[in-house]
């Protein structure tokens, strides 16, 4: 083979040989692999990888037990911690024993309402060691946002923090947690991790116990890793909730592990002893991705808080102090740094830094310019894209290839991606739908509460038969790169964070004054901002007081990221003949694009209400 392109072609044409080579090269630990690599490989969904293998995810992440740094944590300027691999092993051992004593068995769900801190990693590893299923939300989620997720999966145990720090302020979580637990009757134990105070009160926390008391009766020792089938459920992640409550996406231990190890050890060139950072919350799949870096025997650099508090240098201070080798972030953060005039190349020693990864939204060409001019000239900048749906990447970095300004370098190994036009024809040099035409190991093993896979099929396989349609609007360049143009559906993506419109509607339409609302993402300043349109009761006008109340409710019950940048009053909302509001048509009108489906609308005249609105020009 001569170069990356040949290797990628091999990874597609000889995919069974390729994935066997991957698991051998990266060193996946398994009790057995069995004889079969892939069964029903032409079915999507339905293909089964390594059906006779037995392994444990946590065992693969806990190879080291030495005194080197495993977890290094900063929580703004309020907290700092450092834990060795030996200390992490001991902590996981004690917590796993406590989980088992509390009745946790393979397949039980453990919900986490936690920041990105060492205790979260430890709890996930303890859960995975037993074969429990881990699912996490970040503590800035409001009550309804958590219930929309955990209410579906019925956790047996919840791990939660007492509060968190953000932008110099301390936020209490116990009142929200009490209300959440009141609606989760399946929770038998709630383990509280003190963070903002030493002894948080537990009077109102049903079945609550401090983590120190929970593990007090157990001594550290060897961990009895439960080796389970390749597709044993490991994580439940969540869709954005565009059309209702979020879909619960179930990912298997083996597929997650082999995909992450391929991406991290091969594509990111992570080596033992590297020090890896990703700015993420526990409500984003990049937290799960970051945790897997332990399988490469790397140190995890964990940060929780605002990325610009007290200023835009805070994460670069962390990078310099810890000898960071991989800096993971979002395109929006890179854009914000550029606008703030932050120049780490002039102020920080980033000699150890080899790779910067950017995801969440398209990295514009000017973002590439900024990194190489103001951060580091000889760094590998890898824009990457995939999603919660596959807990990994379709396209990303190639450590042996050139970086093209404004492009993602290459399709990931083992991922048979194409760009399809509306007729399902593969195109190059034209915009179209990002698709994957052959099965891969990190496809979801299913959706929760979807026994016949109806929701699963509807999510990815309705557009093109037996082809994964990802919902990204992209272009493949002549040299094999990918240019991202954003989501092709109505999902909102401010700052690269996927937000579902239904989550916002559920809050807005609780106001008596509001008859109905419709929300879109407006392309603005190299990003997307949320714009909410509301129809009020006759005779009412949107004033500052009502607007403030709407923002406050969305912030409290969803998250700060859900809060609209603009709220605009309109008198009608376009809808289909079946009565459904149509975000895509409104979005097209706002952006001055032609309407493709006006004939499907019951009231197409309503579209005129959204044209050339002064409120959206600033």
Question: What is the number of domains?
Answer: 3
In the CATH hierarchy, the architecture of the largest domain is: 3-Layer(aba) Sandwich
CATH topology label of the largest domain: Rossmann fold
Output mean pLDDT: 94
Gross morphology is: globular
| DSSP strand tally | 31
Gap between N and C termini? 53 Å
What characterizes the major β-sheet? Answer: 7 strands, mixed
Point out poorly predicted stretches. Answer: none
Order of strands across the main sheet: 5-4-17-16-18-19-20
Q: C-alpha Rg, in Å? A: 24 Å
Give the helix level as a range of percent. 25-40%
Q: CATH superfamily name of the largest domain?
A: ANL, N-terminal domain
Write the layout of secondary structure elements.
Elements: H1 4-13, H2 15-26, E1 38-39, E2 48-49, E3 54-55, H3 57-61, E4 69-75, E5 79-84, H4 85-101, E6 109-113, H5 118-130, E7 133-137, H6 143-153, E8 157-161, E9 163-166, E10 169-172, H7 174-182, E11 189-193, E12 208-210, H8 211-214, E13 228-229, E14 233-238, E15 248-252, H9 253-267, E16 275-278, H10 285-291, E17 299-304, H11 314-322, E18 326-330, H12 331-340, H13 344-347, E19 355-359, H14 365-375, E20 380-383, E21 385-387, E22 392-396, E23 410-411, E24 417-420, E25 431-436, E26 446-447, H15 454-460, E27 468-476, E28 482-487, H16 501-508, E29 514-524, E30 527-536, H17 544-557, E31 566-569, H18 583-590
């Amino acid at each position: 083979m001569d170069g990356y392109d040949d290797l990628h072609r091999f990874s597609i044409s000889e995919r069974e040989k390729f994935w066997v080579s991957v698991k051998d090269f990266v060193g996946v630990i398994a009790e057995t692999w069995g004889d079969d690599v892939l069964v029903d490989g032409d079915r999507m969904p339905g293909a089964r990888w390594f059906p006779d293998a037995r392994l444990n995810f946590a065992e693969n992440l806990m190879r080291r037990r030495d005194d080197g740094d495993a977890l290094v944590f900063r929580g703004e300027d309020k907290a700092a911690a450092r834990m060795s691999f030996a200390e992490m092993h001991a902590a996981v051992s004690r917590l796993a024993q406590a989980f088992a004593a509390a009745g946790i068995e393979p397949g039980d769900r453990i919900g986490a309402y936690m920041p990105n801190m060492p205790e979260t990693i430890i709890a996930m590893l303890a859960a995975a060691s037993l074969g429990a299923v881990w699912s996490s939300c970040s503590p800035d989620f409001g009550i309804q946002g958590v219930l929309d997720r955990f209410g579906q999966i019925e956790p047996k145990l919840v791990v939660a923090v007492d509060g968190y720090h953000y932008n110099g302020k301390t936020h209490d979580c116990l009142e929200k947690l009490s209300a959440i637990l009141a609606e989760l009757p399946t929770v038998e134990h709630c383990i509280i991790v003190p963070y903002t105070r030493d002894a948080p009160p537990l009077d109102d926390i049903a079945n609550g116990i401090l983590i120190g008391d929970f593990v007090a009766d157990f001594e550290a020792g060897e961990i009895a890793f439960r080796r389970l089938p390749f597709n044993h459920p490991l994580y439940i992640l969540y869709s954005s909730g565009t059309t209702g409550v979020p879909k619960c996406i179930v990912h298997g231990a083996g597929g997650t592990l082999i995909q992450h190890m391929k991406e991290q050890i091969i594509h990111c060139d992570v080596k033992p002893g590297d020090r890896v950072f990703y700015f993420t919350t526990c409500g984003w799949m990049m937290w799960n991705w970051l945790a897997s870096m332990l399988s490469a025997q790397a140190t995890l650099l964990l940060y929780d808080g605002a990325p610009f508090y007290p200023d835009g240098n805070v994460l670069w201070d962390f990078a310099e102090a810890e000898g960071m080798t991989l800096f993971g972030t979002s395109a929006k953060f890179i854009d914000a740094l550029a606008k703030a005039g932050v120049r780490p190349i002039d102020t920080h020693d980033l000699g150890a830094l080899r790779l910067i990864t950017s995801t969440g939204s398209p990295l514009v060409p000017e973002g590439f310019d900024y990194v190489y001019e103001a951060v580091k000239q000889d760094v590998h900048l890898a824009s990457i894209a995939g999603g919660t749906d596959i807990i990994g990447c379709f396209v990303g970095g190639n450590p042996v290839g050139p970086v093209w300004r404004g492009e993602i370098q290459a399709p990931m190994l083992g991922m048979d991606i194409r760009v399809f036009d509306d007729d399902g024809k593969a195109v190059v040099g034209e915009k179209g739908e990002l698709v994957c035409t052959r099965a891969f190991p990190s496809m979801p093993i299913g959706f929760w509460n979807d026994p016949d896979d109806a929701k699963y099929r509807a999510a990815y396989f309705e557009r093109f038969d037996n082809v994964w349609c990802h919902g990204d609007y992209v272009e493949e360049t002549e040299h094999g790169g990918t240019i991202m143009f954003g989501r092709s559906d109505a999902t909102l993506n401010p700052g690269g964070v996927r937000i579902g419109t239904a989550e916002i509607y559920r809050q807005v339409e609780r106001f008596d004054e509001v008859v109905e609302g419709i929300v879109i993402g407006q392309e603005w300043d190299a990003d997307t901002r949320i714009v909410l349109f509301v129809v009020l009761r006759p005779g009412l006008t949107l004033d500052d007081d009502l607007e403030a109340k709407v923002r406050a409710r969305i912030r409290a019950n969803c998250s700060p990221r859900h809060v609209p940048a603009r709220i605009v009053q309109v008198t009608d909302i376009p809808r289909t003949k079946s009565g459904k509001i149509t975000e895509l048509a409104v979005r097209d009108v706002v952006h001055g694009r032609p309407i493709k489906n006006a004939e499907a609308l019951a009231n197409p005249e309503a579209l005129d209400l959204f044209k050339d609105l002064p409120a959206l020009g600033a």
